[in-house]
Amino acid sequence: MAWSYSVKEGIANLNRSKFAALASTSAATVALILVGLLGLVGYEAQQVSSWLLQRVGEVEIFLEEGIDGDNAEALYRRAGLTPGVADADYVSQEEAQAIFLEEFGEGGEAFLDDPFLPASIRVRVDSDYANADSLNALVQTFSGWNRVDDVVFNQPLLVQVQQNVQTFTIVGAMLGGLVLLAAIFLVANTIRLTIYSRRLLIRTMKLVGATDGFIRRPFLIEGMLQGATAGAVAGVVLLLLHGVLSRYLPQLGTLTVEVSALMVGGLVVFGVVLGWIGSYVAVRRFIRKVALH
What we know:
The chain is of the alpha+beta class and 293 residues long. It has helices at 2-16, 18-56, 69-80, 93-104, 132-143, 155-196, 199-207, 212-248, 257-289, and strands at 59-63, 85-91, 120-125, 148-152. The protein has a four-stranded antiparallel β-sheet.
């Protein structure tokens, strides 16, 4: 009975103080848009870093000179089926020479009188394997195969990229923490102002013997409803914003249905939590300060 009354009263409070409810919901929406923007930037950065690590973590398997086509094809298929390998490409001697001429430029033909470039298999690993330890293990595996002359990957560059990604992650986490604190502070203070206008109602309820919990519950319900609304609005705004930006920045790609649902759902849940925290802190403070005389 108490909870049903609290829910009805919380909804009624929204109708009674529409301007105050709109102000606090708008503040929560702005705060959640900032949080969502940070999350989107982090998601896109994670996608880029995974792609970059996969490219930097490319392993090249050089085959022995004179290997026949059947053995080369067998090694290529075996490499593609190796755990941790995302995809593999076979580069014949002729293709290797063409790549050399393209990259070396004019005058490269002088080095190809006696072909010296071997056939190879270029392997790109899954993002989970794009680290020095996993790649070293793969190199050892490939090096043990017959008809393989050498296996190489750019370990110094990979280590440098990993360090840069870790630095970016730490800085992003610190910025995220600051944004979260700013969001909580903004919402809590806005809700506090809306509750301040009802301090006489709180005093009256205390005078007639209402418990602190009974007084607090409708305000908590109201704050949670405002937070849920703000989260939904913020999610829609961010989806529209990402759709517009992706037209001008194709590198952003398209958000999948799962990622979009997770983002909107996460913002709604975070908005509910934010509204609850802000309402709880504000109401608790006013309940303690209200004088009964």
